[in-house]
Amino acid sequence: MSGEDLIKKREKLLSYYYKNREKRILYQREYDKSNKEKKKAQDKKRRETTNKNKLRVIQAYSRKHYYPVLLKKYKGCQICNSKFKLEVHHKRYTKKLKDCMIVCQPCHKKIHRKVKE
Length: 117
Ligand SMILES: [Zn+2]
Ligand SMILES: [Zn+2]
Hints:
two-stranded antiparallel ribbon, binds zinc ion
């Protein structure tokens, strides 16, 4: 094999290597990106589940502890004084009494409709 051929062969190998390197980097980048998105989605799902669980715990807690207190204090819905279908509404989702309200179901629905708007 002549020296020239060797050089050509080497160049070919090098270009092959670099082409592949680019491909590898691109592939790695794509992989990282899709992985990041997957991880993000997983994190989001986990956060949502944690939040949902937290809300459930707070709701159960206030229904048990604050509902009787609020009922005794207000004797009905804090908005319309109705005595039916009373529920605890959270102005903020905490376990504090001051963040809870006792409201009837229709008023409760209205509150949440307003909050969403
Ligand atoms: Zn009401
Ligand atoms: Zn509520």
